[in-house]
Design goal:
The protein has about 450 residues and is an alpha/beta fold. It has three domains: about 140 residues, 3-Layer(aba) Sandwich (Alpha-D-Glucose-1,6-Bisphosphate, Chain A, domain 3); about 220 residues, Alpha-D-Glucose-1,6-Bisphosphate, Chain A, domain 3; about 80 residues, TATA-Binding Protein (2-Layer Sandwich). About 35% of the residues lie in helices and about 25% in strands. The strands form four sheets. Strands 1, 2, 3, 4, 5, 6 and 7 form a seven-stranded mixed β-sheet that branches. Strands 18, 19, 20, 21, 22 and 23 form a six-stranded antiparallel β-sheet that branches. A five-stranded mixed β-sheet has the order 9-8-10-11-12, with helices on both faces. It is globular, with a radius of gyration of 22 Å. The two termini are about 40 Å apart. Belongs to the phosphohexose mutase family. This is Phosphomannomutase/phosphoglucomutase. It comes from Amycolatopsis samaneae. Its cofactor is Mg(2+).
């Protein structure tokens, strides 16, 4: 078998269907995953998104799992957090077929152990890759069986139990599903709640005919922003392709920073469990740890990436974790990420008071930020060293290298510069007191990066 390192990524398996990923290879991945979990699990939960290739690939994976004598529980069409719910509530390992926000030609597999525990390079993915590259050993025992199970209703009921919206004022909310799995989950989750949903692009279509299902890119929320203003909505929600991330816009159509959402949800979780630990990654706003501490919580800073967040949540017993990429993790959801639960928290907070969302979230938005700026470079290490040397010479500067390079300047401004794991890019995030200070620091760093 050829080298699979190009498609077995840090957190998942992902590639172009027909070129890097086909049914035969996916069958081998299923068999290798079964071997990995076999000592502890008698079955694997399998779900898939709306991509054209997903039904065939998920069936091939199930065939591989059952070839090793392990049963499969198929939940069919699902969001990624719906798959995590199934893995957690059934206490079974799981496989989700999705390429998230990637273009239509891609597909992939997100894997987890029982209880939605993540499977990454260091926790099983490298072992799976090696097994497939070396050839999956045959199993001469009885095949496993495939059964089907509907979990969408249970998933929705579980989320509504965690966040109660029934006592709040009625809200009008525009939801842009981007032709992704939000169109599958939102109608059931919001049924019976005091929320009038104005749907956009709820038709499941893996060709993404309206826009990419990646709300992190500002051009993909333009339609949502316009619709919120047009219908006079209280808020807008945008989900990515597999609906595990959720972005929020306020009643003016203005984006609400995921850092502000992290702080808002953290305060609500701390009200339920005073003194709890809250995880935030190192590119979230300074406002997050400040607000957590002001509300009696313990902020803990981590590297970027769900495997680091989940590991730190397990180590510290954290009640909640947030990333600036709009991934939100809840201890009550098996430490897995669910944008839907974060969205319900935002709507509950909005419904509990009479003011607009912009007023509510302004209390959690303290600083100006650049957003993530990518630069293509020929030598990531050399550029990082150049930036580090330039800023190390400035008096009062603090530098740490937990994840890339984080530089804190006197007065509170800071930036993080991180290399991409998969592309020749450096990713820059800058925060400062105001827009002008952000622009000046951004220009200074980019001049060094792009020299």
């Amino acid at each position: 078998m050829s080298d699979l390192s190009g498609i077995v990524k840090a957190y998942d398996i992902r590639g172009v269907v027909g070129e890097q990923l086909d049914a035969a290879l996916v069958r081998d991945f299923g068999a290798a995953f079964a071997l990995l979990v076999k000592p502890d699990a008698s079955a694997v939960v399998v779900g898939h998104d709306m991509r054209d290739s997903s039904p065939e690939l998920s069936a091939a994976f199930a065939d591989g799992v059952t070839s090793q004598g392990v049963d499969v529980v198929s939940i069919g069409l699902a969001s990624t957090d719906q798959l995590y719910f199934a893995s957690g509530s059934l206490d079974l390992p799981g496989a989700m077929f999705t390429a998230s926000h990637n273009p239509a030609k891609y597909n992939g597999i997100k894997l987890c152990r029982a209880g939605a525990a993540p499977v990454g390079q260091d926790t099983g993915l490298a072992e799976i890759r090696d097994t497939v590259e070396q050839g999956v050993p045959a199993f001469d025992g009885a095949r496993g069986t495939v059964s089907e199970r509907e979990v969408l209703g249970d998933y929705a009921a579980y989320l509504r139990k965690l966040v109660d919206l029934t006592g709040g004022r009625p809200l009008k909310v525009v939801v842009d599903a981007g032709n992704g799995m939000g169109g599958h989950t939102v109608p059931t989750v919001f049924e019976g709640l005091p929320v009038e949903v104005v749907p956009m692009y709820f038709e499941l279509d893996g060709t993404f005919p309206n826009h990419e299902a990646n709300p992190l890119d500002p051009k993909n929320i333009v339609d949502l922003q316009a619709k919120v203003r047009e219908v006079g909505a209280d808020a807008g929600l945008a989900f990515d392709g597999d609906a595990d991330r959720c972005f929020v816009v306020d009643e003016r159509g203005e984006p609400v920073s995921p850092s502000a959402i992290t702080a808002l949800v953290a305060v609500r979780e701390l009200a339920k469990e005073p003194g709890g630990t809250i995880i935030h990654n190192l590119i979230t706003s300074n406002g997050v740890p400040e607000i957590v501490a002001e509300h009696g919580g313990k902020p803990v800073r981590t590297r970027v990436g769900h495997s680091f967040i989940k590991a730190e949540m397990a180590r510290t017993g954290a009640i909640f974790g947030g990333e600036h990429s709009a991934h939100y993790y809840f201890r009550d959801f098996w430490r897995a990420d669910t944008g839907m639960l974060a969205a319900l928290h935002v709507l509950a907070a909005l419904g509990e008071q009479s003011g607009p969302l912009s007023e509510l979230t302004s209390a959690y938005s303290r600083y100006a930020a650049s957003g993530e700026i990518n630069s293509t470079v020929s030598d990531q290490v050399a550029r990082l060293i150049a930036v580090k040397d330039a800023f190390a010479a400035k008096p009062g500067t603090e530098i740490d290298e937990l994840d890339g390079l984080t530089v804190r300047l006197p007065g509170g401004a800071w930036f993080n510069l991180r290399p991409s794991n998969t592309e020749p890019l450096l990713r820059l995030n800058v925060e400062a007191a105001d827009v002008n200070a952000v622009r000046a620091l951004t220009d200074e760093v980019l001049a060094l990066v792009r020299a």
